Model the fold of this input.
Amino acid sequence: EDQVTQSPEALRLQEGESSSLNCSYTVSGLRGLFWYRQDPGKGPEFLFTLYSAGEEKEKERLKATLTKKESFLHITAPKPEDSATYLCAVQAGYGGATNKLIFGTGTLLAVQP
Amino acid sequence: SAVISQKPSRDICQRGTSLTIQCQVDSQVTMMFWYRQQPGQSLTLIATANQGSEATYESGFVIDKFPISRPNLTFSTLTVSNMSPEDSSIYLCSVVGLAGVGTDTQYFGPGTRLTVL
Done:
């Protein structure tokens, strides 16, 4: 069964304290791995898509990496405005057209000034 | 970038009633989806809204409980029927195929927070 597990469930950082969030997955043929940010009371906001092991994407203080079993979201020198829930999702399936996303339960990040 | 809106943004309903949630996109998209996000749980796909035909439901979700319409390429509705407190959740629509972006990436609306008493 396709599955996505995120850790830790919650993370508290001091402003400027770099860290990483983990997303491990088991899927029958990975078509893509997606990272989203979700603020309270809002829908998920797209951050990155990774398609193959070794791929990396960066945006401001965030960098996403992908291996054959997991993805990391590295946060460098975070600021309080980076506080949010970070969601990981995978798109799986061999052949055909499928856009179904399987989500993890997210990591709640709090960055204190 | 495209704007995805949902109505209502939140509602409080009595058990046994039904609520219809609307999702509107300001440009045409190829695919539209409906998700549920229960407290403390991950987003779960309810169904794919197909334009001009019946929606495709995921395991555990049925048309009688969650009827879906998609009359055109920019609009869809999800109805939560005969509600019970267990239906209290955030309901989200997402779209794929916005002009100028990849065909795999899903973009989400702001969500509808439903509370059933």
Q: What stands out?
A: Residues 23 and 71 of chain A are 5 Å apart (CA to CA). Chain A is about 0% helix and 60% strand. Chain A touches chain B through 22 residues (CB under 8 Å).
